[in-house]
Structure formats: structure tokens, C-alpha cells
Design a protein that fits this description.
The chain is mainly alpha-helical. It contains seven helices and no strands. Helix 3 packs across helix 4.
């Protein structure tokens, strides 16, 4: 079982890294899956991920505060808007547009209702 979690962790890490440069692929959910898998398979890789200068903060903010940073929220909102605009420009069918607007509206609501992080709550992340 540990081997399966390790493989799944590296797979989701790879997708998360691709998501850093590919705007339509979200990074954060894949990093959270990676942290979950590494926590169950390898203490070494889990510690590496949490201490990573870029990825570690995203995971710790979510784990400790259920928070999404303001920068990540802005990035997510831009991608959501661009996705809908691209679908309009490419003349996606009406059912696809309606589905996108509903799903992305719910995603937007979720993202915007999360705290911005420890500064907003007055707590510090170690």
C-alpha cells in the first residue's frame, strides 16, 4: 500500500508542477494530494514537500488554517475568467458554457470564502 501511495504522490506532484506553468491545470489540489500520499508512504518526501520554498507554504496554509493565499486566489480567478472567455471565443455549445459557469461559480464561491492565511487570522506559520 505504501508503494501505491508513493507512486500516486509522485504522479500528483508531477501534475502539480505542470500546473505551475500551464494555467488551465490547477497546482494546489495536486499538491494537497501529494502531501496526503507522501504522509502515508514516505516521511522523507513528506518533509521535503513541506519544507519546499514554494510548495510548502501552500500546503501549510491549507493544513493549518484552511487558507488560500491572496495571490493564489487572484491567480485562480484569472484562470476561471480566462476559461469562460476562451469557451465563448471558441463558441462552445450552450450546455458546455452553462455547465462551466455553474461549476466555476461554485469553485469561485469556495475559493473566495476561504481565509487568506495566517496574517488574516493573526497566526504565524512556522
Amino acid at each position: 500500500m505504501r508503494g501505491m501511495y508513493l507512486v500516486l504522490g509522485f504522479l500528483s506532484l508531477g501534475l502539480g508542477i505542470i500546473g505551475v506553468v500551464l494555467p488551465l491545470l490547477p497546482t494546489t489540489p495536486f499538491l494537497l494530494v501529494t502531501a496526503f500520499c507522501f504522509a502515508r508512504s514516505s516521511e522523507k518526501f513528506h518533509n521535503w514537500l513541506l519544507s519546499h520554498p514554494y510548495f510548502g507554504k501552500i500546503i501549510k496554509d491549507w493544513r493549518d488554517h484552511g487558507a488560500i493565499s491572496k495571490k493564489s486566489k487572484i491567480s485562480a480567478m484569472l484562470v476561471i475568467i480566462l476559461t469562460i472567455l476562451l469557451s465563448v471565443v471558441l463558441r462552445a455549445s450552450k450546455p458546455i458554457l452553462i455547465t462551466q459557469v455553474i461549476v466555476l461559480s461554485m469553485s469561485t464561491l469556495f475559493i473566495l470564502t476561504r481565509p487568506n492565511g495566517p496574517k488574516e487570522t493573526g497566526k504565524q506559520i512556522e
